[in-house]
Amino acid sequence: MTDNSLLKQYQHQPGVWDEMFSQDGLREHYSNFVSAIEGLPPLEMTHKDETAKKLFMSQGITFTVYNSGEGIEKIFPFDIIPRIITSSEWTQIEAGIKQRLKALNIFLKDIYHSRFIVKDGIIPAHLIYSCPNFLREMVNVEVPYDIYTHVAGVDLIRDNDGQFYVLEDNLRTPSGVSYMLENRSITYRIFPDLLPKNNVRTVKEYPELLFKNLVSVANRQMSNPTVVLLTPGIYNSAYFEHTTLARLMGIELVEGRDLIVDNHIVYMKTTKGLEKVDVIYRRVDDEFIDPLVFRPDSILGVPGIYWAYRKGNVSIVNAMGNGVADDKAIYTYVPDMIKYYLNEEPILKNVPTYDLENIDQRKHVFANMDKMVVKKTNESGGYGMLMGNSATEQQMDEFKKAIEHDPRSFIAQPIISLSSTPCYINGVLQPRRVDLRPYALCGPDGINIVPGGLTRVALKEGSMVVNSSQGGGSKDTWVLA
Amino acid sequence: MLSRVADTIYWLARYMERTNGILQASRTNFIASQDGLQEFGWRPLLVTYTDLSPEEIGEMEFDTSRVLEYLIMDRANGSSAFNYVMQARENARSIQDHITKEVWQCLNDYYHFIRNANIAGELKHGDPVSAIDMIMRQGILYTGTVDNTMTRDEGFTYMNIGKFLERAIQTTDMVSMKLGEFLKDTKNILEGPSMRYLLYTLFGYEIYIKTYKGNFIADNILQLVVYNQHFPHSILYCLERIFKYFERLQADSVAENFDQLNFLIGKTMNNIKYSNVNAKDPEMLSGFLMQTKNEIFEIGSTLSKLYFGNS
Questions:
Q1: Which three-class secondary structure state does DSSP give residue B179?
Q2: Which of A118, A384, B148, B296 has the CA that lies 20 to 30 A from A103?
Q3: 3-class state of residue A364 by DSSP
Q4: Chain B partners of A273 at a C-beta cutoff of 8 Å?
Q5: Which residues pair with A474 in a beta bridge?
């Protein structure tokens, strides 16, 4: 073995689960990868790092920050060292997510129809009705095959005990899957042969699976229904993803202004006149999708689309109103849902969550605020969040006031020490915190989870916030066969 | 195809063609202006390619470096080459699923290239011809990439209609710009290098030399740039291409829309084909150019109305 300063210099933090190293040294499943890179001179690693950045730039895998008129092109930071997951870990993750989504999907059907779970006292009624994402408009709407959560991105984290916990269920319009695909295609260019030699399972069937599910939820009995992807447009930060998915599935990428509703049927405006649309994979949020029913000032949506949906003339993926199921306060009840609907024990644990409407729990949270992370129940992307260990007294007081004013809008969780993994930063390997978002697809034939996902990295030293809007990056995620 | 997509792809091609036109015209005019020509200046080009007021043109017309920067790099000038490339790329971005990955990457590279400070520096402080050549090479790459990778589908057809429509307008404009010189020319033999530069601007110098063996006669030049069916920048050639490409859309069109536009294109093409302009009658030439340009504009606006759903 050659002397490799790259690995020798690496110091993982005590009390944190490191994905690559255990107390006894390198973890077995990383050994193949490490032996392939440890002989490389530092210059070559840096060269690979630069190549990856260049590839992202030249392929336009960027998002644009618009200030001062001219757009500034940024790439979503990518770390070249992959995160590796063993086959047995994946089996557990896969089973856990499937179980969770099954329960959440039944919950959505239940909550918008009979509401057995409320009547049986499992979830308090006020929690449902006070959720801003509970849509009265969806009550008694029949959705094809009773599927609500066609595409889900469940965020997992690993605590220092090595266990995976579910942090969030993203059931509305989870993004990032294109980075899962692009990260993989960059990896095989900078590390030739490593993927097959490590028996890494492929992720490239994702678009085909998604397309198959989209076609199967069409209401018209025909072999080639018209499926479109509805995007808010080029200024959306996930626009790259929308165009990538549309291209990979060979479907039309439409904006709200391309669609029109006539007599409760959705059409798209083509050079040959109007063409009926059967399935819409929408990446526009509920509140913007129909200005006649939701936000009247929205220009991203299509007037009248809600009624076309309600009448069953068009299928919309994901269903509207899913926000009630991934609300951070409802999240606490997902293990109960699993027991109630499926009569099973949850395979994946929740992060312990304090209900701030409960006076005792609120007291406990206020007394231990430096060990807590406080989140707004209906925000995402790392916004509206307080990390107790790094907050000032003043920030804590502000949050306490806000919580007392409206406890339903907040939850608190003990700070989980996210696992870390080596990242190649400035020519050396440094530990950075990561989470994992696998993407699950629910169709009439069941739930499919592509073996892989997006590993998000908190690139700032010591940070535990992995969201891309807060300085996060990503890694390729290898699931071994 | 979605109307918006067709509209976007058509304008993408027009922007790219116009960029090419501006660059070539700037390149030629730069060389001409350094070639000992009397009364050199940038006025005609500034009139054609910008919306500056006569006073503003007066301020900069003899400052080569400033004009080049304004025409090519100025971000505040909505019709600079820089902004056209940026627009073309924005268009490409919003229809990425209708062009090939290669075309998108090529435009993306072009955009990053023209943004590069080195190019602006070379244009301003170094050799402007090299700088323009380097930029133009990106355009050539784009043309080749489109040709080599794009499926011959509706998108490709709209792209080509846009390209040749824009090119026909450019050629008409460039000939109109030299109209004054035709008027001045009484002997019908142009000794000054001015006509040579018209040919350079339209990429027609070599074909002219091969065809007419070095005598710069105004009528011959007009024959080439208006009527020659093998010269890709002649007005007739462009119209014939538009006609050909448009025919391909028949199956994907509403029948009456197709008939209406087909008639317009055919009429314009034949008006050119069966005209007979010559340099001896500058009045007629001027009228002809004006009429042709208006007819081409009408094709553009009818396409926009009937196929892109714009009113």
A1: helix
A2: A384
A3: helix
A4: 254
A5: A78, A456
Amino acid at position A158, single letter: R
Q: Which two tokens stand for residue B91?
A: 């268009």
Q: pLDDT tens string for chain B (311 positions)?
A: 999 999 999 999 999 999 999 999 999 988 888 876 555 678 888 988 899 999 999 999 888 889 999 999 999 999 999 999 999 999 998 898 899 989 999 999 999 999 988 999 999 888 999 999 999 999 999 999 999 999 999 999 999 999 999 999 999 999 988 777 666 655 545 555 777 888 999 999 889 988 888 777 888 889 999 999 999 999 999 999 999 999 999 999 999 999 999 999 999 999 999 999 887 788 888 999 999 999 999 999 999 999 998 87
d(CA A51, CA A373): 37
Considering CB atoms only, which of A253, A268, A271 is closest to B97? A253
CB atoms within 10 A of CB B66: 15
Q: Please say whether the beta carbons of B235 and B272 come within 8 A.
A: yes
From residue B174, give the alpha-carbon distance in Å to each of B161, B203, B216.
20, 12, 17
| Interface membership of A268 toward B (CB under 8 Å) | yes
Q: Residue A65 class from Cβ within 10 Å (0-12 exposed, 13-18 middle, 19+ buried)?
A: exposed
**CB neighbour burial string for A247-273, b if at least 16 within 10 angstroms, e if fewer:** bbbebbbbbbbbbbbeebbbbbbbbbe
Chain A positions in Cβ-Cβ contact with residue B309 (cut-off 8 Å): 269
Inform me whether the C-beta atom of residue B280 falls under 8 Å from chain A C-beta atoms: no
What is the distance in angstroms between the Cα of A255 and the nearest Cα belonging to chain B? 9
- Distances from the Cα of A95 to the Cα of A16, A50, A161, B11, angstroms: 25, 38, 20, 50
ipTM of the complex: 0.77
Partner residue facing B104 (CB), from A60, A70, A253: A60
Of B93, B105, B309, Cβ closest to residue A59: B105
Per-residue pLDDT tens for B78-104? 999 999 999 999 999 889 889 998 999
Judge contact between A271 and A314, C-beta under 8 A: no
pLDDT in tens, B239-263: 999 999 999 999 999 999 999 999 9
Could you tell me the pTM of the whole model?
A: 0.84
Interface test with B, best of A56, A239, A240, A271 (most B CBs within 10 A): A271
Nearest chain B residue (CA) to A274: B2
Q: How far is A314 from chain B (nearest CA, A)?
A: 18
B102 inside 8 A of chain A by CB: no
Q: With an 8 Å Cβ cutoff, are B252 and A268 in contact?
A: no
